Request: fold
Amino acid sequence: MVMTKINITLSLASEESRALGPLMTVNDWHGNLLRAAFNGPEIALSDGSEEIRGLSLLVSSVPPLEIARREPPSNIMLQGVLEGEVIAKSFQGMITARSDGICYITTAKQLISPDAEYDRCICLLKLGGQLMDQMDNTCFMVVQKLLQTAKEVIWVNNSCEYTADKPKVSTVSGFGKTITHGRPNLSFIHINVELTPSIVAQVMRVIHHNEFVAPNDRETDLLQYEDDFHIPRLVEAPEINHLFESELCGPKPVTIQVDKSNEVKTPVKLCFTPWSLDSIYFRHDHTLSRT
Reply:
């Protein structure tokens, strides 16, 4: 008999403690499990009959790691400016050791053959240096060629952590979304790493994980902080983030008491001229009825 140890973490929530919390439905759990490289919910028992609240029981499984690939992918790496050659060769050695296809190394100063096509591009151009404000014509042509032909782009940079010293680095996220808008089938993943000896291993960890996740379910922005990867994104939670003025004052403007006296003030209306801050003023609004 073979015994396997499995670590399980349970997180409980109740309607009383999270009355306004974003409890996930079965469909929400399905999407999040796929993002975490699971197969999705195999058994999902809801607290209610309509399956719109939290789940009492959720069972899922991890897909087998032995996934056959038709052909090994071709990789190309754009060398960075800070220890770029050493890091690029480390990537090349690890990709080759994993039998993950051939891997070429190039720089932003070397033009790529017009007929060249690559499955994956690992871009280290911004690792340790600026790119967007120092890009010349040759560098632009190289980046443009790879963005037009590669099926997957892994864009690696640094210095965009919680206390960023290079705010321009964060523009890569918006840059990637602009590129994928023109090429919907392109997988553009932005990884912000810390300049530590484990850079190669951490990036390869993300690449290996994405091999078992469908392109549409992959995370596009990853932030490394103290050897852990975080997903810097906003979660829509209107009941938490919005101030419900209609619940406080009603759906229509009402007259309110502005001082301690019993005198009821006349409602006022905000008036202004667009694009002119100096034009803002208040005037009496006699269209509102007194309460």
In short: Residues 1-21, 240-245 have pLDDT under 50 and may be disordered. The helical segments are 26-35, 84-97, 137-149, 171-182, 199-210, 238-241, 245-249. The longest strand covers residues 276-284.
